[in-house]
Hints:
The radius of gyration is 16 Å and the shape is globular. Helix content is 47%, strand content 15%. The protein has helices at 12-28, 38-44, 79-96, 117-130, 133-141, 147-154, 158-167; strands at 47-52, 58-65, 68-74, 102-106. The protein starts with 11 loop residues before the first helix and ends in a 9-residue tail after the last helix. A 4-stranded mixed sheet has the order 1-3-2-4. Helix 1 (12-28) packs parallel to helix 4, helix 3 crosses helix 4 and helix 6 crosses helix 7 (158-167). By secondary structure, it is α+β, with helices and mostly antiparallel strands.
Amino acid sequence: xxxxxxxxxxxxxxxxxxxxxxxxxxxxxxxxxxxxxxxxxxxxxxxxxxxxxxxxxxxxxxxxxxxxxxxxxxxxxxxxxxxxxxxxxxxxxxxxxxxxxxxxxxxxxxxxxxxxxxxxxxxxxxxxxxxxxxxxxxxxxxxxxxxxxxxxxxxxxxxxxxxxxxxxxxxxxxxx
Length: 176
């Protein structure tokens, strides 16, 4: 027996994965009003998180050691950056673990012209995981209209929030 239908092109498989992970996280109690407890989600997936000193240009790494996956996070980065890094590395685990056993997130990949499709996918996944579109709409409807307010509410950096809003089609007013 087979399945027939139209497979959507674009990023739908990623979105469906994010939605199922968020649903799972909500059922486990890892989702608050606006925030996903990304660390608890990662630990629940049997991935160890280590905060260590890394060179400033390296935000984090995901690698396999023996039979275990480990995320290393630059302990010198801000808590919001660390949170996004954990989500980004978890995205590599969910999307790309069968392709590679080592991933490294560097400042080099934060520049659009240097991103590979794998890095774009991991960034999109992390953004959707930490800043779901429906939660952003709810926040805006409840009068959280400033970029900093939204970033603080979702516990992400200003640049991560700005990029997510732009990708969702919101227009930013002022010099934010």
